[in-house]
What does this fold into?
Amino acid sequence: MLLYEGKAKSVFSTKDPSIVRIRFNDKTTAFNGLKKENFKNKGMTNCVISTLLMGLIEHAGIETHLIQMVGDTEQLCHSVDIIPVEVVIRNIAAGSICRRLGLVKGYKFNRPIVELFYKSDDLNDPLINDQHAIDFGWATLEQLDMMRRKSLKINDVLQAFWLKKGITLVDFKLEFGVVPSGKMLLADEVTPDGSRLWDVETGDNFDKDVFRYGNGELSEAYDKLLRRITELPQNL
Ligand code: TMP
Ligand code: ASP
It folds into this structure.
């Protein structure tokens, strides 16, 4: 049974109420759904990439909702209540922070910048601070601190992974959820839809900016990214 239909994924129930099936689709939206298009195989690519990256994150000691990938475009995951606060980690200036703070795209931060956004399509995911999240009951201070700590550790894991593939991790967005016991898990997805990934040599985008700003074919960029991930290292 369909439990929830998001923009790029659908969540289905299973016989076990503590487990859900998440299907990645080919739909792509940008600017909060203003721009829409379908890209062949995007669901499969994102499902494979998210499965791989969540595996790495899990291996680094941060628990995720992922149980296993099933078929080409689906994952079995622990069912969580999503905390409606998105964590964005930025290593290099791009996107909304450039507009908000007048920064030059490509400016390298001395240390990763952590930003929080309220997960609300109606409000276009506004930037928030701790007090908003706590006073409006979206998360506790303990949860926010845990989300920041986990996100920074995930940044270390992902930066190292992408660098080995010749890719700079510019920024990315994470969502967390809680299971009934109160334990927090990384949830949602870790994909090029929710990250900025630049070729170290050329600066080319391997992410959804290709679609947002119409500078190339998204399917081609994602195919190249998948090939980059799966190809043998140069020294083997
Ligand atoms: P921003 O520069 O638009 O704030 O985006 C920062 C990062 O977060 C970027 O990698 C894309 C990702 N992101 C999402 O995954 N979903 C969203 O709704 C938004 C606004 C950004
Ligand atoms: N994730 C949002 C959307 O799907 C915003 C974006 O990615 O630009 O519209």
